[in-house]
Amino acid sequence: MAIYALTGFSLVSLLSFGYLSWDWMKPSLVADVAMDPMEKSLPPAFARPPHIIFILTDDQGYHDVGYHGSDIQTPTLDRLAAEGVKLENYYIQPICTPSRSQLITGRYQIHTGLQHSIIRPRQPNCLPLDQVTLPQKLQEAGYSTHMVGKWHLGFYKKECLPTRRGFDTFLGSLTGNVDYYTYDNCDGPGVCGYDLHEGEDVAWDQSGKYSTFLYAQRVSKILASHSPKEPIFIYVAFQAVHTPLQSPKEYIYRYRSMGNVARRKYAAMVTCMDEAVKNITWALKKYGYYDNSVIVFSTDNGGQTFSGGSNWPLRGRKGTYWEGGVRGIGFVHSPLIKRKRRTSWALVHITDWYPTLVSLARGNLSNVPGLDGYNVWPAISEGKESPRTEILHNIDPLYNHAKYGSLEDGFGIWNTAVQASIRVGEWKLLTGDPGYSDWIPPQTLTNFPGSWWNLERLTDGLRKSMWLFNITADPYERYDLSDQRPDVVRTLLMRLVHYNRTAIPVRYPAENPRAHPDFNGGAWGPWASEDDAEDWEGGGELLKSRNKKKKCKICKLRSFFRKLNTRLMSNRI
Prior knowledge:
The chain has 573 residues and is of the alpha/beta class.
């Protein structure tokens, strides 16, 4: 494999580049609670089900946390991770909806029909209603459940909303990305609407408040109004640090020396989010929850490198099945952990949080058979071996097939044109088109020539459709061993075949013009009536409504918008 190495920089020097220490106890600009800095946690009794706070960040790159050697200041995350358990063999999905669906259901995408792309705002699609969700299981166990932040699991019917899927309260956005201040989201030219909701109502009165501030303050209010004697689950899905790159000026000023403007704004957003996490932690202590709490921190996918994120030294970026797209930042902080202050290399996947948290809550998993996740609490808390030995990253039959893939290349076992990826033990196999495959150094190195990001570009992968890596020995995916180890390739291909036999049809319906915010009071929200009859078939195409009379009322409008959408799409391309 021909690789052009960066000259003049060692991996160690780049990983340690620009990291600055920061005062953990410095007053926060987003604080709305106070905490005694000398407060000490009591020895955990674990006599009651623990309070669970799950924090999910959006598009935060693997490199973009202080303890991974970043130049971005994240003192809160650094300290929480240092005092807890860092998960350094932790995997997520490469894009938003898949990670969120697997967290909420404990199942791989192939088992929910969401194995292709994301749920888009105008699609009549959502997390399948027959799935029993994590918050629903926690409700069964006696928990009060709350969600704050980004949903992105569909909303075309009211039954799809967070408050119908197990959350007692919800404040946040339903779509994939919104303006941090105005909460507007445009799904193409002229298809714009407001997207901030309180419960099932549009929260017009919250416009103008920076979402990271708003969400942290909401968590504090929930904790202040609840009794720490009763178990609580709060799912905090920050919008940060997804585009658009927006941050209060005082945070941007801290990074004024950064030459890359996108990286500067992105860094400010990460630090602002870090302070929001600090205030949530302070609120847990102030209101008496902390001693019996479990805080889980996770990213949802790899960083988007052309929007300021960095996954260095991993290969790839958001939207790819290279390690830069699927290896996440993760840690657990809790007084209940038996072996604290350590790094865990136990294999953990985002589906594992479902059975792990339900088990911690003393809930019942017997009526949700077929989960793809495992209870990994013993591995996290006690340092025991992880029960997980493999991960299906995904099988996407709808993604553009690789030009040079074939069934013959897959030993007659698997069509290597199909995008798929799996890890078994220390081995990882990719087929089809895994996505953008470069190694991209931090964007703060602005003295490189204009094409500096190509210094380590692959030169021999253009005609390939299958790769094999020993991830334990080669975490940066530099040495393809598919030719040297055909025996391992065959074994992993057979595992793909096994999983593919259990897959359900893809749910990826055509967009519907009725979803346009102009028909819904100017806001994104449910638009299909509860008695709409819609069926699905293999390729994810939406069948015609059985109610022909109801369809006729909007047939002319549907035709108009289909033509308009075709024109807009051609202009976009």
